[in-house]
Design brief:
The chain is α/β, with parallel strands linked by helices and about 325 residues long. It has 12 helices and 14 strands.
């Protein structure tokens, strides 16, 4: 009879490290570039009578023996009606040899970490080696892991935080990031100067309209754009996309889901033919990333199931080795 391990959010938090997540994604993206990952497009199912959306994200990475799926649910009425989060995530891992389930784990914290980790990976391969200043738009859960990951990929001297939240929340977030990363973090007074001052710019917001102006972005900047992931939504203006060397997590996924790319195409200002490479191709060494210190490099991510399965497989292996979680016969 198959044994199934159950991992709660607390278990995942106990196990996962940003270094471990970046390392496992480096392997996964190289496999993806080599054509060794099976990953159907995410499948949405709506439950309009409950104001709900479910997203099913399967993937198989043979090199990591990672097979499974993440289910993300977005039920906007949950907090008010049921006292539950409006977004929840659950991951199931299967034994690729037998198909038997081996693990079910909470996916909320893991999703935040893997989203940060992919920006850390992009920063490792695309940012200037002498990058010292990181500007971060956003003060939510995703922004926290973005700050953590970028600080693992470059020796930063300073982090600037900008958001539309109230001053108390921004100051608290800056203090939390300083403690987490060891990088002195300050609240920026205005968006334009924060962008002009940075070597690395990360956008982790829920904005529907551009939050930066392309004229603010200085030569040599690396950009991680991870907040918007739906048609019609974008954090980047057209000018920023046009002036950048563009590296998506997946060209196919970004062209299907990212308003940051779709809107410039609709305007006739930009074409996906100008994409330099997918991130995995740079990681694998089959294509070139940054070529000069004055390049503006742009990493755009909409989130891929391979990130979830790779990170979940790493967490599961660690849990088995360290005896973490609850195991029972299924």
């Amino acid at each position: 009879m198959a044994k199934l391990r159950l991992l709660s959010r607390a278990h995942v938090q106990e196990i996962i490290t940003m270094e471990g997540a970046i390392g496992i994604l480096e392997e996964a993206f190289a496999d993806f570039a080599a054509g060794n990952v099976t990953m159907p497009v995410r499948t949405p199912i709506t439950a309009p009578e409950y104001n709900g959306l479910s997203l099913f994200m399967p993937a198989y990475i043979p090199g990591l023996k990672a097979l499974g799926a993440k289910v993300v649910t977005v039920y906007k009425d949950n907090p008010a009606k049921f006292g539950l989060p409006n977004v929840m995530g659950t991951i199931i891992l299967l034994n690729p040899e037998t198909g038997a389930p081996v693990c079910i784990m909470d996916g909320r914290y893991l999703t935040a970490v893997r989203t940060g980790a992919v920006s850390g990976l992009a920063t490792k391969y695309l940012a200037r080696l002498d990058a010292k200043v990181h500007t971060l738009f956003g003060t939510g859960v995703q922004a926290r892991t973005q700050a953590w990951a970028v600080a693992k990929s470059r020796e930063l001297k300073r982090c600037l935080v900008f958001s539309i939240d109230d001053d108390e929340k921004k100051q608290a977030f800056a203090g939390e990031v300083t403690k987490l990363t060891g990088v002195q973090t300050e609240v920026a007074k205005d968006a334009e100067n924060a962008v002009r001052a940075c070597d690395i710019l990360t956008l982790a917001t829920s904005a529907k309209e551009p939050i930066i102006d392309g004229s603010w972005v200085e030569p040599g900047t690396h950009i991680n754009a991870i907040g918007s992931h739906a048609p019609g939504m974008r954090e980047l203006d057209t000018a920023t996309v046009v002036k950048s060397k563009v590296f998506p997590d997946s060209t196919e996924a970004c062209m299907a889901e990212a308003g940051d790319f779709q809107i410039p195409v609709e305007e006739g200002a930009w074409s996906p033919d100008s994409i330099a490479a997918d991130l995995g191709e740079v990681v694998a060494g089959s294509k070139t990333g940054r070529e000069a210190d004055n390049d503006i490099t742009l990493f755009k991510s909409v989130g891929l199931a391979l990130q979830d399965m790779a990170t979940a497989s790493y967490v599961y292996r660690e849990a088995v080795e360290r005896g973490i979680g609850h195991e029972f016969e299924f």
